[in-house]
Write a structure and sequence with these properties.
Blueprint lengths: L14 H5 L5 H30 L1
């Protein structure tokens, strides 16, 4: 899988933070990370596409 440029915007968190998570943050974030990245990419793309019409 190729690296997306959106990875640059994700905060750097140590593995210990995920391991000490009280509610299983590791499994939760791993299941949501790709969906969140795709949504952020779509919002960024729409902003670039329609931004020229708004300004």
């Amino acid at each position: 899988m190729r690296r997306s440029h959106m990875e640059d915007f994700t905060p750097i968190v140590t593995e210990d933070v995920f391991d000490r998570g009280p509610f299983g943050l590791r499994s939760f974030l791993q299941g949501r990370l790709e969906k969140a990245r795709s949504i952020l990419w779509i919002l960024l793309w729409e902003y670039q596409l329609f931004g020229c019409f708004l300004f």
